[in-house]
Each structure stands twice: as structure tokens, then as C-alpha cells.
Write a structure and sequence with these properties.
The complex is a heterodimer. By secondary structure, chain A is α+β, with helices and mostly antiparallel strands. Chain A has a five-stranded antiparallel β-sheet with strand order 2-1-5-4-3. A five-stranded mixed β-sheet of chain A has the order 7-9-10-12-11, covered by helices on one side. Chain A has a two-stranded antiparallel ribbon with strand order 6-8. In chain A, 41% of the residues are buried. About 1% of the residues of chain A have low confidence. In chain B, 48% of the residues lie in helices and 20% in strands. A five-stranded parallel β-sheet of chain B has the order 2-1-3-4-5, sandwiched between helices. In chain B, β3, α3 and β4 form a beta-alpha-beta unit. The chains are: A alpha+beta, B alpha/beta. The interface between A and B is medium-sized, with 19 and 17 residues.
């Protein structure tokens, strides 16, 4: 119906879909929303057990041997009932020890034996090859059937093998993390399990209800046919009861020991609790996928189809249901791919862990780069898959699918004795496990693989081989002449017998190594503490005392031992191993107190391997350490005292300052609250702790909190107090802030008073000039008025003069008014607020006032005023600054000179420059002129506050004031005021 | 003969007013707006009495007084001042002024002072 090419495209599309599904699951997993972590996906992933064997082979088996196909599913179902006990223990042990394969598990149980792991790996790889071959065979055959081109099967086989290899690599070996779970892979396998179940059920329904009239019809018709014997158990079907038992046991073992089952059930298990659910979900799945095996098998027989292994495909195909057959093909394909991918992954991990990596590590020159290792792993996957393929092409033709699969079942069953007995029998040892495995493997190979190879003509059945195989005793199909066991029973019975005998025999008659003993305890008891116990028991009380003596001195050692013995009320030689362990533990604690716990542990663990000389050196070293420790302890104590004194001292300082200091965390909750804080805010320490500062002091401006750098601002409380708050973030990475609160109400008041006083002082200075200035017009007015009073106003001249005189008087009154107004402007009650003001206006006003000073009359005044934008400032304070500078300039030029004032834009602000040609400032006092109370004027002529007040005012405006001067040449003051104020 | 007065005052209105007042009283009155202008006038002619303000643009009234008195120690000078302070009065008298009057000027009082000064000198 489809050409090979088209079918290949379908296959590829399916695999890409599978990859997309896996990718999706992996992405979800990475985002922490795992869709894999649940018992349903887990149970479905276990159904990787159902391969093409189940999909095609079971029908084939049912068509030839009747109900015996069921053993393959009854075995796992029985095993699932045991999972509650066995599997949980295995999963727990594997997770504790980060075990990822069955070979690691067995190797770890027997003293972490690499040899045993490698052996298990080899047995697994060789043993699984037929099983992989089975899948290849199924895919190639079904491909040929669907495409109808049996001729192209060889080429198609290689192509499909390569594709499967590549996908196995994509799924399993994109990264090098065999210990991790493969969430994507698990999900893809679960997806495949659903696909194959649906496909099989669809075919089953089609055959049962489409081609026949239901189950009753099929069974009725088969009963009347030559195949009626298939309905019964027993020898008539070619399956003896012993064979039944053998098959049952084989499949029970297979579900546990097949590498891919171990991968899915143990390694990919998320949660032990999933096992409980899987114990009934998985058998349910097996039941569902087997419902229609008999109907399809019987249907195929009744319809006269050939090649019973492919009834699932051929029945729909030959009865016109082409799409159903394609679905069946996809179902079978997914059954096969799931197995191939997981199995090759599990096997490659085994090969890598137990053969390749140890080899790499042994050859020191070998590259150890992860990329190389990863590529080797990929190569191993490909090799494993091709091994299966070559098995198919060489001998696969001679056997049915089930026959091939059972060979692998027989192989993995070889692991049973060392695995199960290892879990429950402490005495089982490495030699036993190795001997049993080799013996069993030999029997397996001889009974199951030899005949195959002979049949395929790979081994020539002549000479010694022919002699051997044809002898009564050594016939591979009936060893030792026992014929009643059946083919599978024969191999199982003898391989198992040899295996068990060797295992038990060696275990009983040889001794375990120390490491093996520990591992066996860990595995059997599932108990980590046994490690300590087993080690501790090797010490006697004398040993322990000796160790302590070497490290601590004789007296201390004896004391420690004696006090333990007194507590236990025992004598030295009466101690039980358990008590000895306790004593060792006690001694280790004593030693740990002196030299630290890790050193103590090292000393106790290595004590036996040290030579006398080394022991002497070690104890010398330890004595030195103890000695220096004692010294450093004394030093520490002294330092500690010093520290606590310093702590107390600094706390005292913090508590005593009249400034509020508090610390708050990043959530603005108070950690510390000093006494100053209490008195400023009225909030007591106890009330403040752990409270949010915002709740405690709601009037704090919100903007200042949450600043990332130090910040200071002044604000008024509702109670009319002026507070300065400074908040600085902690340098500490844990965050938080230091809050410093200062009540500057008094200071502010005093500052205002000082400013007012300065202002009055400068008005006083100006008084002489001003009074003269008012006096002049006043004198004119007075004079004119007196003139007017003498007039008789009886002639035109008098009247004209009166008019003229009144006009003049008026203009003089206006002059006076102007002066008085400018004085009033200046003396106006000072405001403390900043407002948008025109700096030029302020300067004008000040100069108007100063020009009444008589000295001003001698001065050449020039102004160079640029248009500048209004600034936010306190006009009163700035005016005071200008006045102080102008008066200073007049003071500096008693004999006249040039005074120039400039206002100009400068950078991000405005610059005001006062330049005089006066006496200049002596370089020696230059850096003191802004200091309070510093003056160069004679006693009583200056307070020394003028410039320091200027400095304070400009600083409060975030500006700067600088001075340049040269003695005898003059002085220039430059004020810079920023446009923006940051508060 | 009519007595000659020189009034030195930088305040024009006041200066003109005083000239009118004393002209009406029968004196011959010259006025100067500054000490420098006064000294120019004094080079050409002499006056019986100089009435000068202290605060003037340029040289002050006291300076004018002491400078002119060096050559003409007999010159009578009355000082006008807005400073109602003892200090200026003492200073002006020390410099050789025969009297001082305080602004604002009361015409009657001023006339009396002028008459007193002129008569003092002639006796």
C-alpha cells in the first residue's frame, strides 16, 4: 500500500513526534512543572516490557502453543505483587548509592566489585542481543509486509537500524548524565505504551467484531477446527507443565533483571509511592494488551493466514483495512523502538560504567574529556543496536520472535541468585556470585546459543562439537539425559542449578573481604549505620586508650576510659562489641573536643594503618596543635574581654549622645533604638523594637526612606519641632539603614536670631549714611517750608514761587519715601522659607541700601548682569550675604576704588562675583576667613561673624563660596548657587 | 557795604533756598555745589562768611575749612551738618569753625547764627 520510501517517511515522522513529546516533557520538567512525576506515567513507562514480542510474538505463540503465551504476562503480574516489598527496597538502596544499572547494583552488593559488574555487563550484552534482534526482525518484517517489497528488506534493515541508533543516541546520550533521570525519555516511552495499546486493541476489535461475530463465534469455530487443542492446557499443545513453570519463572525474572526494566522501574522512579500504584496499574496494562491475543490468533488461523507472528498486521491488510494495518504497524514499531531505545541506553551505561570508564581511568594517557566519553557512549549505543541487528541477520531467520526473546529472558535470569540472595542473605559473597554467574552463563550459552549457531552454520557440527552435542550426557537440548524438562526448562533448570550451587558453595566456603561485609550489611539491612558499627568493632578498649594516650596524654586517656567503664559498671574485658562501639564514639568525641571532629575521625579510621614512627610524628603534631590551641584560647579570651569592653564602651557612647540613633532592617523594622531616640520621639525602646519606623514616626518624609545612598533632610514635626534626619544604608550586604535623628529646633532658632542680629548690626552700620541721606531732602523741605511761611501771597511772583516750591518739596518727600522703603525692605521680618526669587532684584535692593553709605560715594561701581533664571532660595539670607560682602568691600577700600559685581550663568547654576580693588587678604589668614569670630578688623569694629554666616547660608543652599585675593590688589568672592536643590 | 556769604551745599534745592533767604536779608550770596567749586570761587574773591555742609561729594566740608584757613586764618566759617552728634561739632570747632548749625535748618536760628558770627569777627 505504501512504498518503502513513503513508509520510511512515516517512520521518521513518528520518531520526530516521539522526540517532540520527549522534548516537551523535558521542558516542563526544567520549569519545575513535571508531567512525568506521577504513578500513571510511571506505570505506562514500565510497559516498555511489552515489545514486538507482545505485539506480534504473543499472537504467534498463541497460534502455535495456545495459552502458554500468557506466562510472559502472568510472571510479571505475580512479580508486581511482590513489588511492595522487594522493589521498594531495591529502589531505596539504588538511590542511596546512586546506582544506575543492574550491573552496578550487583557489583556494589559484592564489595563494589568491578570484575563482577563487568561480568554482569558482558552477560547482559550478549544475553540481550537476541532480544534486540527480535525487535529488528519484527520491524524489518513488518516493514516489508506493509510496503509489499520483501526484496528491499536488507537495505531497509540497515537504514532502520541506523535511524533507531541515532534516535537512541538523541534520547539517551545527548548529555553525559547517566545518574540523572531522563524525564523526556520516560514520557516518550509512556506515550509509546499508549500508542501500541490502542493499535493492538483496534486490531483486536476489528478481528473479533469486524471479521467474526464476537469472541463466542471465534472460540466456537476454533473448537470445531483442527486447532481445538489450543484451547487446552497441557502436553497436547506442545507445552508441558514443566515448560509452563519454566516460562513463568523466566518472565518473573525478566521483569526484574532486564536492563531496560531496571532502568525504568528503579532508575527513573521519582517516588517510592508510585510503586504501590504501579503494582496494580502495570498488570492491568498487561491484561488489556492481552485481551485480544487469542481472538486474533484464532482468527488468523481460521482465516488461513500464514506466518502467525504477523497476524496482527496481515489480517487487517488482507481484509482491506489498510489504515488499520498501518496503525498496527505504527503500534508494533513503537513497541519495538521503545525497547531498543531504553535497552540500548541501559546497556551502554553498563558498558560505559563497568568496562569503558575503568579502562580509560587505567590508561593514564587516555583522553578524559567529557566530549570524548560522550562520543564513546554514543558509539556503544550504536554497537549494541548493531549487535542485535547482526543476530537477526545471521540466526534470526530460524526462530520465531518469542523464541528469540526467551533466550534473553534465560540470560537475565542468571542474575537472580546473586541479586535476590544478595539482598536477603548476608553471607553471599563475591566469589560465589562470580562463579555462579560464569557457570550459569556457560550452561546458557551451551544449551541455547550453541544449537542456534550450529543451526545457522556458524559453528560446524562436526568433530568434537558433533561428538559433544550428540552424546547422551551433553546434548544441549536435554542435558544429563533429562528429557522431560522441555527446551526452556532444560536450560533454566541446569543453568540455575549450576548458578545456585556455585554461588552458595563459594559463599559458604570462602571468606568475605571487609568491604564485602560492609556492603552486604548495607544491602541486606538497608542500613547505613552498619558501616560505623562494623568498623568500630575492630577496636579493643586497649586500642582506644592507646590512641587517646598518643593524642591527649596518659592521664586524660585513662580518665576518659575509666569514666566510661564506671558508667557502664563493667570491666575492660567485659565490654560487648556494641559497647566497644560506644566507647570508640565517646573517645572520638573527647578527641574531637581537642582537635576537631574531622581530625578525630581520620585518626580513628586510619589508626591501624599507621606505622609506629608515623604514629609518633602524628601524636607530636597533635600535641603541638593542642598546645598552640591552648595559647590561642588564652589570647582569644583576652581579645574577647577587650572586645566586650569595646562593645560596652561604644554602646555607652551611642546611648549617651543627645542624638537619636536607630537601626532598621530592609523592611524598615527597628532593630536598635537609643536613648536619644527615646527623648526626641517620645517612643520607648520596648515599644520601638520590631515595629515599622513608618508607624512609629509617621511624620518622617516618606521619600527619605528607601534611598539607596546616604541622605539627609530637615523637616518640621507636627509639634513644630525642627528635626534633621540622616539615613544611611548599611555597608553590610544584609541591608538595612542607620537612622540618625537630631532635634535642631534650638539651633535653628539661634541661627535665626544670629542672622537677625547680624542684620541689625549691618543696619546700624548703614544708619549714618541713611540718616544723612534722609537728612538732606528733609533739610531742603524744611528750608522751603520756612520760606513759604514768610510769603504774603499778594503778588503773582509769590504765587508762582509757591507752586514751584511745593513741587520741589514733593519730589524731596518722594526721595525720602524711597529710602525709607528700601530700608523697610531690608529690615522686614526674616522668613525661613525658600521661594523662587530673582537674584538680580535681591542684588539691586542691597546695592540701593549700601549706596547711602558715604564711602560708597568714593567708589567706582560697575555691574555686569546677565539674564539668569529664578532660583529657589531664601531671599532674606542671600541679601544678607550680598550686604556682608558689599560692606566688606567698602571696608577694604576706605579711600575709594573699583567695585564690580557680575551675575552670570555658570554650568548648572548661577555665579555671582564680587570684585574689589581693596586691601586684599593676607595669605596667612586666607583659610581662616570663613571661620566664625575670625576678624582682621580692630577690636570692636567687627564681630568676625560676617563671612562665616555667608558661608553657612550658601552651604545651606547647596552652593559654594570661594575667595581669591592678593594683598594690595584686591579680593574677589565667587558664589555659586545650583539651579536645583536636592531636598 | 553788603556782606558776602558763600554757601557750599551739594543739595541744590537747599542751596537755592538758602541763597534766596539770605539775599532777602540783604547779603550778597554765592553758592557752590562742592568743596572743589568753592575753592575755585575763593581764588577769585573773598567772603565774609563761608557756610558749608560737611558731607560733600569729593573733599569734605571740614577739609575745605582747614585747607582754606591755612592761608586765611581769619576766615569765618559755619559748619552745617546732619549729624546731630557732639563728635562732628567738636571736630568742626577744632578745625576752626566759629559755629555749627544742625540740619534741618531753622531759618531764624540760622540768621541769628550768621549775624552773630559776622559781628563777632568785626569786633
Amino acid at each position: 500500500m505504501l512504498t518503502s520510501y513513503n513508509l520510511l517517511v512515516v517512520v521518521l515522522c513518528y520518531l520526530l513526534l516521539l522526540f517532540a513529546v520527549a522534548y516537551h516533557a523535558e521542558r516542563k520538567e526544567r520549569k519545575g512543572r513535571s508531567i512525568v512525576n506521577n504513578p500513571y506515567i510511571y506505570s505506562l513507562s514500565l510497559a516498555v516490557y511489552c515489545t514486538s514480542w507482545t505485539f506480534y510474538g504473543s499472537v504467534g505463540k498463541a497460534a502455535t502453543s495456545g495459552l502458554s503465551f500468557l506466562t510472559t504476562y502472568l510472571g510479571p503480574t505475580i512479580m508486581a505483587a511482590l513489588w511492595f516489598v522487594v522493589l521498594k527496597k531495591i529502589v531505596r538502596t539504588a538511590k542511596t548509592h546512586r546506582i544506575t544499572t543492574i550491573s552496578d547494583f550487583i557489583g556494589a552488593r559484592y564489595g563494589k566489585s568491578l570484575l563482577l559488574s563487568a561480568l554482569v555487563t558482558i552477560v547482559a550484552v550478549v544475553g540481550i542481543a537476541p532480544y534486540l534482534g527480535l525487535q529488528m526482525k519484527a520491524i524489518i518484517h513488518t516493514f516489508a509486509i506493509i510496503s509489499g517489497e520483501p526484496g528491499g528488506s536488507a537495505a531497509v534493515g540497515v537504514v532502520i537500524t541506523v535511524i533507531l541508533g541515532i534516535f537512541a543516541i538523541i534520547f539517551g546520550a545527548r548529555r553525559l548524565d547517566s545518574s540523572e533521570r531522563h524525564g523526556g525519555l520516560v514520557f516518550a516511552i509512556a506515550f509509546e505504551s499508549i500508542v501500541k495499546l490502542i493499535a493492538f486493541l483496534a486490531v483486536g476489535l476489528f478481528v473479533t467484531f469486524g471479521l467474526f461475530d464476537g469472541l463466542g463465534d471465534i472460540v466456537g469455530r476454533i473448537k470445531d477446527s483442527e486447532h481445538s487443542v489450543l484451547l487446552f492446557l497441557g502436553t497436547g499443545t506442545g507445552t508441558s507443565y514443566s515448560e509452563w513453570l519454566a516460562l513463568l519463572i523466566l518472565s518473573m525474572m525478566a521483569i526484574m533483571f532486564l536492563p531496560r526494566q531496571f532502568q525504568m522501574t528503579v532508575v527513573e522512579n521519582y517516588d517510592e509511592s508510585h510503586i504501590t500504584k504501579a503494582a496494580w496499574l502495570f498488570p492491568l496494562y498487561l491484561f488489556l494488551i492481552n485481551i485480544f491475543v487469542l481472538p486474533i490468533a484464532f482468527g488468523g488461523l481460521l482465516l488461513g493466514e500464514k506466518s502467525a507472528d504477523y497476524f496482527v498486521l496481515t489480517i487487517p491488510l488482507n481484509n482491506g483495512a489498510h489504515y488499520l494495518s498501518l496503525l498496527a504497524f505504527i503500534g508494533g514499531f513503537s513497541a519495538a523502538t521503545g525497547m531498543v531505545i531504553v535497552e540500548s541506553l541501559a546497556l551502554s551505561t553498563m558498558v560505559m560504567n563497568n568496562i569503558v570508564m575503568p579502562a580509560i581511568i587505567n590508561f593514564h594517557d587516555a583522553p578524559r574529556f567529557p566530549a570524548v566519553v560522550l562520543n564513546i557512549k554514543r558509539l556503544v549505543i550504536l554497537m549494541v543496536i548493531f549487535l542485535g541487528y547482526s543476530f537477526t541477520t545471521s540466526v534470526g531467520e530460524y526462530y520465531s520472535l518469542v523464541d528469540m526473546g526467551l533466550r534473553s529472558f534465560e540470560a537475565v535470569t542468571l542474575f537472580a541468585p546473586s541479586f535476590f540472595l544478595g539482598l536477603y542473605w548476608k553471607k553471599g559473597n563475591k566469589k560465589g556470585a562470580i562463579a555462579g554467574l560464569i557457570g550459569g552463563f556457560a550452561v546458557w550459552f551451551y544449551t541455547l546459543i550453541m544449537p542456534t549457531l550450529i543451526e545457522a552454520d556458524i559453528i560446524k557440527n562436526i568433530g568434537f562439537v558433533a561428538h559433544l552435542t550428540s552424546s547422551e550426557l551433553c546434548n544441549p537440548n536435554s542435558l544429563f539425559g533429562v528429557k522431560s524438562l522441555g527446551k526452556w526448562g532444560n536450560s533454566l533448570f541446569w543453568s540455575m542449578s549450576v548458578n545456585l550451587l556455585l554461588y552458595a558453595g563459594f559463599s559458604v566456603f570462602t571468606k568475605q573481604s571487609k568491604e564485602e561485609e560492609i556492603q552486604s550489611l548495607i544491602f541486606v539491612e538497608s542500613y547505613e549505620k552498619v558501616r560505623e558499627l562494623s568498623l568500630g568493632s575492630s577496636y579493643s578498649a586497649k586500642d582506644i586508650e592507646e590512641v587517646l594516650t598518643q593524642c591527649l596524654g596518659r592521664v586524660e586517656a585513662r580518665e576518659a576510659i575509666e569514666s566510661f567503664l564506671i558508667r557502664k559498671r563493667k570491666k575492660r574485658d567485659e565490654l560487648t562489641p556494641q559497647e566497644l562501639f560506644e566507647l570508640r564514639h565517646e573517645a572520638e568525641k573527647v578527641l574531637a573536643g581537642a582537635i576537631g571532629s574531622s581530625m578525630a575521625a581520620i585518626i580513628f579510621e586510619n589508626k591501624l594503618v599507621l606505622t609506629e614512627k608515623e604514629r609518633g610524628e602524628l601524636s607530636g603534631a597533635i600535641k603541638n596543635i593542642t598546645e598552640s590551641l591552648r595559647y590561642s584560647r588564652q589570647e582569644l579570651a583576652a581579645a574577647n574581654r577587650e572586645l566586650s569592653y569595646l562593645k560596652e564602651f561604644s554602646e555607652n557612647i551611642i546611648e549617651s549622645v543627645p542624638i537619636g540613633i536607630a537601626t532598621i532592617d530592609t523592611l524598615l523594622r527597628v532593630n536598635y533604638w537609643n536613648r536619644g531616640m527615646e527623648s526626641i520621639t517620645g517612643v520607648k525602646k520596648a515599644e520601638a523594637y520590631s515595629q515599622s519606623i513608618i508607624i512609629l514616626l509617621p511624620w518622617i518624609p516618606g521619600s527619605i526612606l528607601l534611598q539607596s545612598e546616604q541622605h539627609e533632610t530637615v523637616f518640621q514635626t507636627p509639634a513644630q519641632r525642627t528635626l534633621k534626619i540622616n539615613i544611611s544604608p548599611f555597608k553590610d550586604p544584609s541591608g538595612g539603614y542607620v537612622v540618625v535623628l537630631e532635634d535642631i529646633t534650638e539651633k535653628k532658632k539661634m541661627e535665626e536670631q544670629l542672622l537677625q542680629a547680624t542684620k541689625l548690626a549691618s543696619i546700624g552700620k548703614l544708619t549714618a549714611g541713611i540718616s544723612h541721606e534722609i537728612g538732606n531732602p528733609l533739610a531742603s523741605i524744611s528750608s522751603l517750608v520756612q520760606e513759604l511761611r514768610t510769603l504774603r501771597l499778594d503778588n503773582g511772583e509769590d504765587i508762582a514761587f509757591t507752586g514751584e516750591a511745593l513741587k520741589t518739596i514733593n519730589s524731596n518727600i518722594e526721595r525720602i519715601a524711597r529710602i525709607v522703603r528700601s530700608l523697610g525692605d531690608f529690615a522686614r521680618i526674616s522668613s525661613t522659607e525658600k521661594k523662587t526669587s530673582n537674584i538680580t532684584e535681591i542684588l539691586d535692593r542691597t546695592v540701593n541700601l549700601v549706596k547711602y553709605d558715604k564711602r560708597f560715594k568714593k567708589i567706582q561701581f560697575s555691574a555686569d548682569i546677565e539674564d539668569v533664571q529664578p532660583l529657589t532660595l531664601n531671599p532674606d539670607q542671600i541679601q544678607q550675604v550680598f550686604l556682608n560682602l558689599l560692606l566688606n568691600a567698602l571696608d577694604a577700600m576706605p579711600e575709594g576704588g573699583n567695585l564690580s559685581i557680575a551675575i552670570r550663568r555658570a554650568g548648572n547654576g548661577v555665579e555671582i562675583v564680587f570684585s574689589d580693588t581693596g586691601a586684599g587678604i593676607d595669605e596667612a589668614v586666607m583659610d581662616r576667613i570663613f571661620d566664625p569670630f575670625f576678624t582682621t578688623k580692630p577690636l570692636g569694629k567687627g564681630t568676625g561673624l560676617g563671612l562665616s554666616i555667608c558661608y553657612g547660608i550658601i552651604k545651606e543652599h547647596n552652593g559654594t563660596i570661594t575667595v581669591k585675593s592678593k594683598k594690595g590688589e584686591g579680593t574677589t568672592f565667587v558664589i555659586h548657587l545650583p539651579l536645583e536643590h536636592h531636598d | 557795604m553788603t556782606e558776602r556769604l558763600l554757601i557750599v551745599e551739594d543739595e541744590d534745592t537747599l542751596c537755592e533756598s538758602l541763597r534766596r533767604v539770605f539775599t532777602r536779608e540783604g547779603y550778597e550770596v554765592d553758592i557752590a555745589g562742592s568743596a572743589e567749586a568753592a575753592l575755585e570761587l575763593l581764588k577769585e574773591s573773598s567772603y565774609d562768611l563761608i557756610i558749608t555742609d560737611i558731607i560733600l561729594p569729593g573733599i569734605s566740608g571740614i577739609e575745605l575749612l582747614s585747607r582754606y584757613k591755612e592761608q586765611n586764618p581769619e576766615q569765618k566759617v559755619i559748619i552745617m551738618t546732619a549729624y546731630a552728634s557732639l563728635e562732628t561739632a567738636v571736630e568742626s570747632l577744632k578745625a576752626g569753625a566759629c559755629d555749627f548749625i544742625i540740619k534741618p535748618l531753622m531759618h531764624d536760628e540760622m540768621k541769628r547764627t550768621v549775624r552773630k558770627a559776622l559781628s563777632k569777627g568785626s569786633s
